[in-house]
Design a protein that fits this description.
Largest sheet: 7 strands, mixed
CATH architecture: 3-Layer(aba) Sandwich
Structural class: alpha/beta
Number of strands: 11
Helix content: 25-40%
Order of helices and strands: HEEEHEEEEHEHEEEH
CATH topology: Rossmann fold
């Protein structure tokens, strides 16, 4: 529970920082005692988390963007024959229309960047977002470089911390370990 809550809190912090770059419009709100002028976000936000590790991060973002639409996608590493090489498999996807919206793609660990790319490729049939925000707790410099090379200029990366080392298996060192396992327990074996 502590791990999940801390990831959720980091999602709240990164969501707050990201909110500083959104577009706002003035709006008049009636209160019981009068009218107040406030600024509300203009962006149509879609929060998309990579299951299952991304759920606590998604919840933290949802605490700030409570009217956002939601999308969920599964993406995991599949090691065919060699434990040091893998491909990203996407099996489940639920997503609203993304055309012209602000897509917030959340995955706690940005190791190689391949999961973010595979996820975004799977989302393309749902429309072209106006802008993309990638949210991660920990990333490697190699993953960050990969993201910068493979995403458009309308993409913004929000990351809490960077660990410089990515080992031969593509894991962040020292990192956290498997964020999904730490949040929800070890995976069931098939």
């Amino acid at each position: 529970m502590r791990f999940r809550r801390n990831i959720e809190r980091i999602g709240e912090i990164l969501g707050y920082e990201m909110s500083k770059n959104l577009n706002y419009k003035p709006e008049s709100i009636k209160t019981p005692l009068g009218t107040s002028e406030i600024n509300l976000p203009e962006n149509d936000i879609v929060l998309c988390s990579i299951l299952r590790a991304g759920v606590p991060l998604h919840n933290g973002l949802l605490n700030y963007f409570d009217t956002a639409e939601n999308a969920f996608i599964s993406a995991y590493r599949h090691h065919k024959h060699n434990p040091e090489s893998f491909e990203i498999i996407v099996e489940y996807l639920a997503c609203p229309n993304l055309e012209g919206k602000t897509l917030v793609l959340a995955d706690p660990m940005l190791a190689t960047g391949q999961s973010m790319i595979a996820t975004f490729e799977a989302l393309k049939p749902f429309g072209t977002p106006k802008e993309i925000h990638l949210i991660s707790v920990i990333g490697s410099q190699k993953g960050i470089d990969f993201i910068q090379q493979n995403f458009d200029d309308n993409t913004h990366l929000w990351i809490a911390t960077i660990d410089e080392i990515l080992n031969d298996k593509g894991y962040i060192v020292p990192g956290l370990g498997d964020a999904g396992d730490l949040a929800f327990g070890e995976k069931l074996q098939q």
